[in-house]
């Protein structure tokens, strides 16, 4: 049985964005959901979510979590050195142009990480749910924490008060990559806000309510604009049939 303790509240999370060869996303998703979910979790990691990028038909986005950085090294060593990846990895790699767009993250603060239950994961071949997931990425200068505080203390309470609470709010994990065989983006200082909605129209209504809130409009957003290094970027995602995040 998979060690579900590793998936309860992971403290290290990878946000992975893959650029695929044209027309091969569904092939990778079918292979991934059939061969790479339970087999990764058996090594001590948690497969949190798999998604189609709604803005790019050749983009696959997924997240996985680990108890800590030491557990990440052990789990990745076991999986990528094991028989399942040896058998199916070449076919997965054949669908990809680039798999190095990876952010290493951690919960922004207590209570902002994922709480998941792999026991409730749908079976392989289950239909994709009719849900819309957004991931908004805020970028700040390396080493600066003022933007993190603005999101934690200013934006997050309004998000919770005007619509569905974010599923997780994550920030850059600055620890060195413990598995250099798989690169991660360095020099990053980001906050990722993940939220789920019945559909995209609910997402747009929630954003409008947040932007119209006096505290956000008059104080939080102007301060974030001064603190950030680039405009926030939002990933528009559709969960696959086996995604825990939905």
What does this 3D model show about the protein?
The protein is an alpha+beta fold. It has a single domain, classed as Alpha-Beta Plaits (2-Layer Sandwich), CATH 3.30.70. The chain contains 8 helices and 8 strands. Strands 1-3-2-8-5-7-6-4 form an 8-stranded antiparallel β-barrel, surrounded by 4 helices. A hairpin with a 5-residue loop joins strand 2 and strand 3. Helix 2 packs antiparallel against helix 5 and helix 6 packs across helix 7 (200-212). The model is unreliable at 1-6 (pLDDT under 50).
Can you tag this structure with a few keywords?
8 strands, 8-stranded antiparallel barrel, 246 residues, disordered N terminus, Alpha-Beta Plaits, alpha+beta
User: So, CATH architecture?
Assistant: 2-Layer Sandwich
CATH topology description:
Alpha-Beta Plaits
Shape: globular
Number of domains: 1
Low-confidence stretches: 1-6
The helical percent reads 25-40%
Q: Over the alpha carbons, how many angstroms does the gyration radius reach?
A: 18 Å
Largest sheet, spatial ordering of strands: 1-3-2-8-5-7-6-4
Count the strands?
8
Q: Tell me the distance between the termini.
A: 23 Å
User: Helical stretch count?
Assistant: 8
What structural class do you assign from the helix and strand content? Answer: alpha+beta
